[in-house]
């Protein structure tokens, strides 16, 4: 046991009851069912740190596994911040590759074959050998199909039978894919190459046939923690079993409702069957959502509750997806945050109008104080990004395309790290809160300035990259204290470069829903929610539709404070309105019923600010009667208009001085609490307060956007501002 029990106690401080149960269950099999935003990474890193500090775990014999290099790097950073060193946090592939490189000379002999990063060139060669021609798009699809076969532990001989019922790449049948699969394997053998799936397969073979090597590996690692367990493939599960060697020191964490990679061979079967595999397992459910407001959490819960029991693809006994579905009860999340704005639903005439409307909303969010890096636009397919790239460029909004050029490959970042390394080697190395200032001085030679340039394009992108290094140095100087040096920063950057764990870049994120898994933002736009895109057109089975539902669920739960859901009636400007809103919106959009039986026109009132052909509405309760402007009698369309009781065309009827005082108070209050200004009150709510000029708490509570919680927090200050005297 540790000589400092107070350290172990400090590690547990701040955990909720369920997180604490997970963190203190240190022995035997443990399954943590963790909903989105419930602090699963916090729970498992504190569990590891608690186990090490109490002497239950040897950090050098503890292996934490996850599915992306970024997630592994995040876990290592958190463990380091908890004072826990020596624990290995790796992806399955990284851990297996390290072992393979070490044991290859002993198990096989000679040099380890070179690793193939991309399969397309090898597949093109295999196709030529078979006298078959195909384009690169089809080759990418074929590469994905071969990856599915290998992680499902299928050989070219067994592929055709296993793939019965699977959708084949265009122009190919199962037998043709099997022949290409064999040709691909032959090309690799001829060139002494292996791919990423081979790394796992070869290690499985070595551990199954080399008892001495298996014993060495099992002696090295005694405790295993597996994150995102719903994404484990049959091959990864087999490797994990061999690493364990019949022992039960295993903690798994996952959520079947976030299974979105079935097409790659991932399955939640192993998560759902964990209790069957380990009859003595402890089960812990994390359902307290610390990420999203109650309004967003309610939307996510409703999306899943439409299927009171959720279908998930289940492999048969041989590890192949079977024909019978498995039902899984989704976790019902409970938000721990204050109430926020209602999610907004917007129907747009076409893709260009949708992108333009979203650009306008982003501008408004930026004006309200939300940083660009805290805003994301998420779409189903990468091809949808172009319209938003064009709209943001036209509006002067910086953006970053997730999946584009890697951060550490940018020239200014490579040059910046070289300059920082040189500065760290010199006598000018500094520590603590002096590090950020030194970083700014060093990067100034590359064009960094304290203030962002007014220019857009490449100049702004370069500044954003360098500013990300500055921001990282400030963050680390704060968390690591006086001992943090410039040398430590360079080491951190080297480690992040190796794992592609990029720091935050200021710019609105454009990303696919799949690539957004594991990330979160203050404001999220879920776009293109039309039939054929969500669910995607080729989702033609119930299992496929259920996976699309889970994908939308993942998108919803990325948002902390603001959520926008949009769809279009046609693809091109002036096109026929042939698109229909996604079926998933039927249970989410409070005005969905009004769309059925009549074609939506996507009109806007002449003279209204906004994008032509688009409209937006909040998802609050339906009005018994349409709200009208108190000045001109026009029907009110948006939540902001209904809050103030007048349309945007009519002049305000409040005291401008009072409104400015309320805004100044809001800014000061938000800065003291380190949160965006709109979280205190939105502009629309401040306008409504200024127009209503409430004299009592009861009158203030009647204003939309206030609520009991905010009345308790801010009511006294607001009423004092409105009435000019204390309300006591």
From TrEMBL:
It catalyses: Couples ATP hydrolysis with the unwinding of duplex DNA by translocating in the 3'-5' direction; ATP + H2O = ADP + phosphate + H(+). One of its GO terms (molecular function) is helicase activity. Keywords: ATP-binding, Helicase, Hydrolase, Isomerase, Nucleotide-binding. Residues 652-728 form the HRDC domain. It is an enzyme of class 5 (isomerase). It comes from the Bacteria. The keyword Isomerase applies. InterPro entries: DExx_box_DNA_helicase_dom_sf, DNA_helicase_UvrD-like_C, DNA_helicase_UvrD/REP, HRDC-like_sf, HRDC_dom, HRDC_dom_sf, P-loop_NTPase, UvrD-like_ATP-bd. Belongs to the helicase family. UvrD subfamily. This is DNA 3'-5' helicase. It comes from Citricoccus parietis.
């Amino acid at each position: 046991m540790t000589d400092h029990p107070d350290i172990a106690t400090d590690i547990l401080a701040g955990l909720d009851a369920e997180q604490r149960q997970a963190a203190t269950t240190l022995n035997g099999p443990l399954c943590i069912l963790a909903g989105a935003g419930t602090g699963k990474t916090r729970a498992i890193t504190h569990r590891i740190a608690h186990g090490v500090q109490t002497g239950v775990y040897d950090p050098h014999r503890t292996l934490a596994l996850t599915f992306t290099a970024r997630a592994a790097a995040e876990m290592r950073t958190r463990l380091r911040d908890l004072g826990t060193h020596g624990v290995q946090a790796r992806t399955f592939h990284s851990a297996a590759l390290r072992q393979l490189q070490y044991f290859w000379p002993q198990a096989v002999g000679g040099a380890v074959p070179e690793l193939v990063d991309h399969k397309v060139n090898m597949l093109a060669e295999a196709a030529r050998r078979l006298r078959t021609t195909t384009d690169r798009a089809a080759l990418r699809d074929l590469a994905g199909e071969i990856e599915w076969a290998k992680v499902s532990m299928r050989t070219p001989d067994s592929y055709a039978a296993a793939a019965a019922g699977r959708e084949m790449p265009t122009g190919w049948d199962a037998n043709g894919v099997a022949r290409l699969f064999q040709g691909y394997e032959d090309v690799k053998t001829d060139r002494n190459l292996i791919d990423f799936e081979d790394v796992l397969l070869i290690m499985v073979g070595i551990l199954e046939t080399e008892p001495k090597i298996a014993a060495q590996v099992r002696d090295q690692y005694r405790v295993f923690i597996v994150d995102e367990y719903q994404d484990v493939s049959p091959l990864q599960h087999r490797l994990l079993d061999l690493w364990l060697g019949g022992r039960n020191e295993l903690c798994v964490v996952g959520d079947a409702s976030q299974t979105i990679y079935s097409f790659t061979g991932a399955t939640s079967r192993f998560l759902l069957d964990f209790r069957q595999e380990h009859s003595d397992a402890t089960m812990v459910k994390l359902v307290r959502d610390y990420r999203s407001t109650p309004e967003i959490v309610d939307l996510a819960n409703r999306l899943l509750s439409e299927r009171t029991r959720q279908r998930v693809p289940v492999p048969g006994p041989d590890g192949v997806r079977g024909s019978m579905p498995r039902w899984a009860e989704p976790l019902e999340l409970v938000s721990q945050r204050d109430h926020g704005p209602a999610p907004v639903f917007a129907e747009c005439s076409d893709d260009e109008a949708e992108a333009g409307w979203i650009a306008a909303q982003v501008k408004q969010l930026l004006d309200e104080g939300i940083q660009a890096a805290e805003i994301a636009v998420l779409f189903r397919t990468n091809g949808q990004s172009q319209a938003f790239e064009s709209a943001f460029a036209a509006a002067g909004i910086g953006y970053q395309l997730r999946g584009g050029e890697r951060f550490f490959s940018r020239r200014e970042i490579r040059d910046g790290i070289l300059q920082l390394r040189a500065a760290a080697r010199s006598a000018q190395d500094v520590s603590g809160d002096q590090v950020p200032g030194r970083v700014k001085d060093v990067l100034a030679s590359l064009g960094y300035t304290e203030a962002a340039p007014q220019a857009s394009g490449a100049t702004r992108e370069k500044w954003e990259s360098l500013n990300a290094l500055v921001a990282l140095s400030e963050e680390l100087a704060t968390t690591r204290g006086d001992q943090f040096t410039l040398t430590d920063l360079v080491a951190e950057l080297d480690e992040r470069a190796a794992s592609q764990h990029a720091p935050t870049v200021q710019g609105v994120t454009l990303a696919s829903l799949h690539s957004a898994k594991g990330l979160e933002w203050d404001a999220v736009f879920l776009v293109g929610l039309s039939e054929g895109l969500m669910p995607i057109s080729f989702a033609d089975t119930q299992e496929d539709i259920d996976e699309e539902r889970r994908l939308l669920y993942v998108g919803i739960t990325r948002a902390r404070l603001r959520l926008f859901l949009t769809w279009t009636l046609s693809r091109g400007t002036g096109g026929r309105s042939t698109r229909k809103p996604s079926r998933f919106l039927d249970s989410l959009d409070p005005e969905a019923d009004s769309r059925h039986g009549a074609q939506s026109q996507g009109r806007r009132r002449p003279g209204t600010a906004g994008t032509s052909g688009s409209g937006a509405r909040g998802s609050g309760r339906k009005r018994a009667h349409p709200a009208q402007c108190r000045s001109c009698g026009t029907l009110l369309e948006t939540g902001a208009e209904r809050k103030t009781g007048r349309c945007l065309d009519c002049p305000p009827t409040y005291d401008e001085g009072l409104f400015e005082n309320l805004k100044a108070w809001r800014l000061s209050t938000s800065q003291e609490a380190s949160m965006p200004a709109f979280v205190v009150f939105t502009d629309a709510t401040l306008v409504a307060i200024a127009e209503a000029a409430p004299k009592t708490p009861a009158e203030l509570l009647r204003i939309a956007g206030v609520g009991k919680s905010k009345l308790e927090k801010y009511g006294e200050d607001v009423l004092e501002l409105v009435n000019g005297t204390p309300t006591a």
